[in-house]
């Protein structure tokens, strides 16, 4: 009997010890979770204060330039705009480095602030330091025209400089093109803000380092672009292929897009479907030099980090985009050759009154 009593006593003590140990483990886990949440909240609060203060400082510096007082000397203006641009870029890097603990809504809000500051800076620079007027001419490699005498060596007169407006951020525009292979060299794109709109079944190559590129309404097109110093923005694209290197990428209202991407910040998509993303692979003789001149960090590529503003679930991947896997790299030389050959054949048939459909350049990849 005494042994049974001792056994029961030991059993009760063992259960109590186990219960106390489990309770202590539970409290330790809860304490650790609370500590992590506190650190994260402190990080978010610190980021919000720091980001807001830096954005306010940039806005104040822009307001000083726009105050209407006597403008500073050109050399002083150059230094001040350079300092503001570097400050905006530093703030962009700060946002990118903080995305791991920020919500998508917060990232979107901060990115909108940065975009507004960048646009204000560009507008003020163009207004206070207008560029000398000069024309651009692009050599059109292949073009389908109604008149037989138009050859592929004709200077492309449709590439024109955008009329100067106080609010314009772009130097020139390429628009309303169909079934053309357009190659623009460094002398036409370096440091420029490029707009491309309303293009269909075109192969466009920008062999240089643009300041920024904006594309609107493109269908069945391929765009190959050298390193972009700042941002690439595109909207309303359908069944296109892009090879882009840039600091920021934003894609809106587009579908069935394949992007070979180098981006130093977090790429952003919104209202998009069937987006495939792989690593940047465009190549041309001056590419390495353009990387240096653009200021892009070639060793930093965040092409796998994409924020979908229509998909806010942190635990489930967005169904609107995916990484290219087990897919061979495109042969741009073969694409270029086939596109030129198809266009030449169709131009010849069109001159003979035969209607034929140009092969989609994106489908060759």
How are the secondary structure elements laid out?
Elements: H1 2-65, H2 74-98, H3 104-128, E1 138-143, E2 155-156, E3 160-161, E4 172-178, E5 180-184, H4 186-189, E6 193-200, E7 203-206, E8 212-219, E9 222-227, E10 231-246, E11 248-252, E12 255-263, E13 267-270, E14 273-279, H5 287-294, E15 306-308, E16 321-323, H6 332-351
Parallel strand pairs: 4-6, 5-7, 6-8, 7-9, 8-10, 9-10, 10-11, 10-12, 11-13, 12-14, 13-15, 14-16
Antiparallel strand pairs: 1-2, 1-5, 3-4
Give a verbal description of the structure:
Residues 163-311 form the C-CAP/cofactor C-like domain. The chain is α/β, with parallel strands linked by helices. It has two domains: 5-128, Tubulin Binding Cofactor C, N-terminal domain (Methane Monooxygenase Hydroxylase, Chain G, domain 1, Up-down Bundle); 138-334, Pectate Lyase C-like (3 Solenoid). Helix content is 40%, strand content 26%. The chain has helices spanning 2-65, 74-98, 104-128, 186-189, 287-294, 332-351; strands spanning 138-143, 155-156, 160-161, 172-178, 180-184, 193-200, 203-206, 212-219, 222-227, 231-246, 248-252, 255-263, 267-270, 273-279, 306-308, 321-323. It has a 16-stranded mixed beta sheet that branches. The longest helix is centred in the first third of the chain and has 64 residues, at 2-65. The radius of gyration is 28 Å and the shape is flat.
């Amino acid at each position: 009997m005494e042994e049974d009593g001792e056994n029961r006593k030991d059993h009760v003590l063992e259960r109590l010890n186990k219960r106390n140990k489990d309770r202590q483990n539970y409290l330790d886990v809860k304490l650790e979770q609370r500590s992590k949440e506190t650190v994260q909240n402190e990080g978010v609060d610190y980021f919000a204060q720091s980001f807001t203060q830096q954005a306010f400082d940039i806005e104040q510096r822009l307001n000083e330039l726009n105050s209407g007082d006597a403008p500073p000397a050109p050399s002083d203006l150059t230094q001040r705009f350079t300092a503001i641009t570097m400050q905006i870029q530093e703030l962009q890097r700060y946002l990118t480095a903080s995305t791991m603990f920020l919500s998508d809504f917060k990232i979107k809000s901060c990115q909108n602030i940065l975009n507004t500051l960048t646009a204000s800076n560009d507008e003020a620079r163009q207004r206070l330091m207008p560029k000398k007027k000069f024309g651009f001419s692009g050599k059109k490699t292949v073009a389908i025209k109604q008149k037989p005498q138009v050859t592929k060596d004709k200077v492309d007169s449709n590439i024109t400089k955008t009329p100067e407006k106080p609010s314009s951020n772009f130097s020139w525009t390429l628009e309303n093109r169909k079934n053309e292979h357009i190659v623009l060299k460094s002398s036409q794109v370096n440091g420029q803000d490029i707009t491309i709109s309303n293009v269909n079944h075109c192969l466009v190559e920008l062999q240089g380092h643009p300041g920024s590129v904006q594309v609107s309404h493109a269908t069945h097109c391929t765009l190959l672009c050298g390193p972009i110093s700042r941002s690439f923005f595109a909207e309303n694209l359908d069944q296109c292929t892009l090879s882009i290197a840039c600091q920021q990428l934003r894609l809106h209202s587009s579908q069935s897009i394949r992007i070979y991407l180098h981006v130093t910040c977090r790429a952003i998509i919104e209202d998009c479907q069937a987006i495939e993303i792989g690593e940047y692979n465009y190549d041309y003789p001056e590419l390495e030099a353009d990387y240096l001149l653009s200021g892009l960090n070639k060793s930093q590529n965040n092409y796998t980090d994409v924020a979908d503003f229509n998909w806010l679930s942190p635990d489930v991947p967005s169904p609107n985009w995916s990484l290219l896997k087990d897919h061979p790299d495109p042969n741009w030389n073969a694409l270029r050759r086939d596109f030129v050959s198809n266009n030449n054949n169709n131009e010849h048939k069109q001159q003979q009154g035969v209607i034929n459909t140009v092969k989609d350049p994106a489908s060759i990849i």
